[in-house]
Amino acid sequence: MSTTTRSDGRTYDQLRDIMIVYEGLDGVDGSARFGFGQTQSLTSVSGPMEVRPNLEQPSQATLDISVRPLVGIAGTDSKALSTNLKAILAPALFLSHHPRTLIQIVGQALCGTESGSGLGSVGKGWNATLVASLINATSAALVNASSVPMKGVICAVSVGRFPSASAATLVLDPSEAELPHLVGGGCFAFLFSSALPLTPSSPDELPPCSLLWTNYTSSVVYDDTELRQAQALAEEGARKVWAAMKESVSNMERTAQCPAFNRFKSAKTESRVKKDTKNLSESEVDDDKMEI
What we know:
The protein is α+β, with helices and mostly antiparallel strands and 292 residues long. Helix content is 34%, strand content 23%.
């Protein structure tokens, strides 16, 4: 594994700058934007809420996930990613705590001009780094919503493989500029939870983690040793993502306690109440007209 710097100056095991922003979107219970550099995704979470009878499950909440590309309509790649995201999230959520309800998650790509990532066409839709940003945005949005019980937090990173005549050259978090030069790679998603058993390699300041999902593949032959190396590299990166999420939650809590923020919330709530009252008054007038 090479220790030389890459074209953007990073070492093989270095992530790009992590960005986590809690957007506060209207009409949803939680939202977050997550990015590795310019590779960014936005996710919103709504629920638990009322579910249509044909989707109702008597023993657990219905998890509905849709993924939207940067441009165009959702194609095969986006729909397949929605299915994978549902399989990744289900083990981390206590869906049985809210039976006969709906939890709705909507993910949106915020990049995709250079490499084709985030476009709706088949084969160009979602590279591994963009998938990782979407998974992390979803985890952050669920934490922001705090309405769905969670077993832990899911953190994801991508690993790429450069062509090499000898040992595999693996790099963490490949950028858009590096994607055309890769011969393999994939996304690795880990569940961080204090409920998991401790391992000798678990740092004291972090909860233990376990691999939930990966789509690592290569156009050249690779063995289990390479896969284990890629997983170990990804786990180190995922720990950094978890630390960044923990720090972002602390900042979010401080922001919520800020008087200026509370004044903003109060003004927003007052405006919404006035709007609802106005709508109610208009509705009463209409009812009077109907009675006449």
